[in-house]
Amino acid sequence: MFFSLATTAPQAADLGYLLQKHPERVFRKSLSVGEATVFYPEATDDRCEVCLLLEPDSVKLARDAMKHGNGGGYADAKPYLAGSLLSVAIGRCFNSALGGRAKEKTERLTEDWPVTVSVPALPCRGGPDAVRAAFEPLGYSCDFAAPPLDPERPEWGDSAVHQVTLTGRQPIPAVLNHLAVLLPALEGDRHHFIGDAEVEQLVRRGGEWLAEHPLRDKLVAFSLKRKPSLIAEALERLDAAFADESTEEEPDASNEEGGEVAPAKQPRVRLPKLHTLRLDAIRDVLAEPARGISSVVDLGCGEGKLLRKLIAEPRFTRILGMDVSAPQLARTEERLKLDRSDRRERVTLIQGSLTLRDDRLSGFDAAALCEVIEHLDPHRLDLVAASVFGCAAPKVVVLTTPNREYNAVWEALPAGTFRHADHRFEWDRAEFAAWTDAVAARHRYAVERRPVGEEHPDHGPPSQMAIFTKTSTRAAETGEDG
Ligand code: SAH
């Protein structure tokens, strides 16, 4: 597996600084997938070319494939093809450059370099059209040669594997990110396990260019093996890309090459999750001074992401998290460091179910249900309403749930599937309005609905929020109702 990147930029050999690989040295690295070698056939001020060669460890790969139930065999054609393994090698050999970091010449990281990338054997299910559709919107022009399968036997036709040359003007980190994301997506079948880490990586490497790519949804779907929940997560995050600059997640700062690195001039794009937007929206409502809320119960608190945000607000002096899952609560307790003396008094976790009336939930100013109701069977929602609005009856209840209409925006999400395997339903805006109005009327609350996330002109926002405020004076005074 092989690709080369050549440039005729002024002081072309500066490429070595950006890649953190000295042009006069051969760099070798043992990877889980095989042996990688980086070398420069040419490095002058006029032209510089770097090559990455990966010699896959077929025995190890076959063993891994069998571990994951994918069969696999020693005599696989894969060793010759660029694709997901080459992407792994790019990630491991050029990690800093991928992240837009270098030790020296950092000012050249954002410069557009004239580049020619050649991939001598690119497996691509969709042929040249698919390669063009993937790379041309990013500003590359693509050339193809399909060598005959066997020069001696022209009747066998051309190989399905293409020799591809991409030319364009791009910043070096962008070229690497494009290759790292698109080579495996074009290959179309990934042998190794795909999980949250791959979503994280895809969003980090894809960032803005992938968010704006006309084939975004397809590329995301191919990259994530068409797993609906992972696709939804990735698309949510790419959608949120321009909604907010801040996020609590720190980008992966690991540096494969070792040593100190200087940050690139241009800040890295940081992508908040839609979930972060929801949590922030809930926190902001609860923290509005006029509401005078000092105690909050987080119902279905899960891993405690909202609790963490509430803890950070000194105005909340009493915080209760409830969830039905005991193992989850144990993890949350540890994660939130609730054994710290300043937290022990202020924050409590309890196991309980939303479908049962529970006196422990009484006496709080506010309750939050962040992405919880859709995890319950619809016929049990009346019980939830009776417990939350009737029995616990706080002044304010804030609740969020997905807007099903928005799923249509994510073409890659197979029609009719939910965003997460555990969802029992997902409502459109009208269904959400009907249910929240009915609950408000029944339990004497006023309700206001707000969008969460960027609204689509036809399909509305990705998530929807309702803010219930108690209107009954009797209940407001005594904190009890029903
Ligand atoms: N609010 C959290 C978690 C949402 S996931 C967040 O936004 O990050 C839904 C959570 O609801 C899970 O933690 C699940 O254990 C919990 N849950 C499901 N059914 C429940 C029930 N009947 N009572 C209480 N919690 C429940």
TrEMBL record:
Q: Which UniProt keywords apply?
A: Magnesium, Metal-binding, Methyltransferase, RNA-binding, RNA-mediated gene silencing, S-adenosyl-L-methionine, Transferase
Q: Name one Pfam family in it.
A: Hen1_L
Locate the region Disordered: 243-267, 451-482
Q: Which NCBIfam families match?
A: bacter_Hen1
- Which stretches are tagged as biased composition: Acidic residues? 245-259
Q: What is its EC number?
A: 2.1.1.386
Q: Does the keyword Glycoprotein apply?
A: no
This chain belongs to the protein called Small RNA 2'-O-methyltransferase
Reaction(s) catalysed by this chain, per the record, are: small RNA 3'-end nucleotide + S-adenosyl-L-methionine = small RNA 3'-end 2'-O-methylnucleotide + S-adenosyl-L-homocysteine + H(+)
Give the family this protein belongs to, as stated in its UniProt record.
Answer: Belongs to the methyltransferase superfamily. HEN1 family.
Names of required cofactors: Mg(2+)
Give the species this sequence originates from: Alienimonas chondri
